[in-house]
Structures are given as structure tokens and as C-alpha cells.
Design a protein that fits this description.
Radius of gyration: 17 Å
Strand content: under 5%
Distance between the termini: 9 Å
Shape: elongated
Largest sheet: none
Number of strands: 0
Helix content: over 70%
Structural class: mainly alpha
Length: 73
Amino acid sequence: MTSKLSACDTAYRLCSALSLLGRFAVIVTWTARTGAVYGQNKFIIGFLSLIGVMLIILAALHISVIHCTGSTD
């Protein structure tokens, strides 16, 4: 039964890692587009980059605690 749980945990972590890559792509695209709209304003780009880095760090930390719950039957 433990092998089923660890395989489930691995699958959940893989999905979470792929989700993290998707979030990263959205944040980078959104920051770049907003920066272009506002004439490469350093304050706006810096602020959005800071928010993006914090979100990516939190999402990466979340991956380490993901695990399956419930029955694997």
C-alpha cells in the first residue's frame, strides 16, 4: 500500500511542478506586457517582478508538502 501512496505522491508533485511552470510563464508574460504598455517603467516592472518572485517561491514551497489523501483502492 505504501508503494501506491508514494506513486500517487509522485504524480501529484509532478502535476504541481508543471503547474508551477505554467504560473511562471503567465507571470513573466504579464509582467513583460504590462512593462511594455507603461513604457518600461522601472517601478512597475520591479513591483510586478517582486510579486512574481514571491508567488513562485510560495508555489515551489507548496510542492514539497503535497501528498495524497484518502484510499488508493
